[in-house]
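ligand=TUI
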Amino acid sequence: MTTKKTRVTELLGTQYPLIQGGMAWVAESTLAAAVSNAGGLGLIAGGSAPIDYLRDQIRKTKAAAPGKPFGVNIMLMSPNAEELAKLVIEEQVPVVTTGAGNPGKFMPAWKEAGIKVIPVIPSVALAKRMERAGADAVVAEGTESGGHIGENTTMCLVPQVVDALEIPVIAAGGIADGRGVAASFMLGAEGVQIGTRFLASEECQIHSTYKQLVIDAKDTDNIVTGRTTGHPCRNIKTKFSKRLASGEMSGDITPEEFENITLGSLRKAVQDGNLEEGSFLCGLIAGMIKDVKPCKDIVEEIMAQAEKLLSE
Ligand code: TUI
């Protein structure tokens, strides 16, 4: 088995079948360009950012990674989703990934514009719906991922999605080295999406406190908040995230109070490194990440290790 040429490298036009996660507030042009220049697919996260800012980010990525494929992630719960769905067409963005919802209504216009569409999905049912709607591939994202998560694990979800679909499947959730990539390929994936490992990259623009939390995290330093709101979200364990999780479970924090407390909390983590009020979204695999490196080294080391394991 090899990672060198799969339906995902063919689809994306990349050297490696590796997509960087579309992490809201985190994935901007510097990171996206670095991953694309390293041979993966860099992504800019739409999050809920203003459209003019995102247009600028798309143009900066094109300038910093000339001729390289890149993509934009559209968070479908965000108020800017409709506008961003148009912007990616205007700016001729080659690849769109979507999260936190069903992108079905945008699919015909994107396909018409020649955009490769890759929805991120947490279940087999949604994966099938996306294939029927014309998706080019799906990212099957396990609950090990950072941020907004589904219930199923990468180990269980990926092979079931692979069995249910004809289009290629990209595995996500808990992958940060070549072993994770090789395991994903064994489960039938033809590509991987990696988020958390890139938090601890030189080109990632998050606050140094955020990077240090990722590097210092042990296997157990992770917690899910928002279970009572219907939007569970995986974070690094801090006093703030522990208080949120216990408060919502005990009823001391109502769902309405929860929304108010968490509004803007990701920005406070990313830009200010604010430990008192910030949500440091992060995947479960952070315990394995010990250093900050350039994206090029991260991508090349991961893919070389995977290739070696798969050829043994
Ligand atoms: O979207 C993500 N991860 C995210 S989005 C995000 S920003 C955010 N901020 C506050 C609250 C919530 C999110 C941080 N991390 N991953 C992809 C993903 N998509 N995970 C789960 C889903 C998903 C869920 C439901 C995809 C489709 C879906 O469909 C429901 C339906 O039937 O419409």
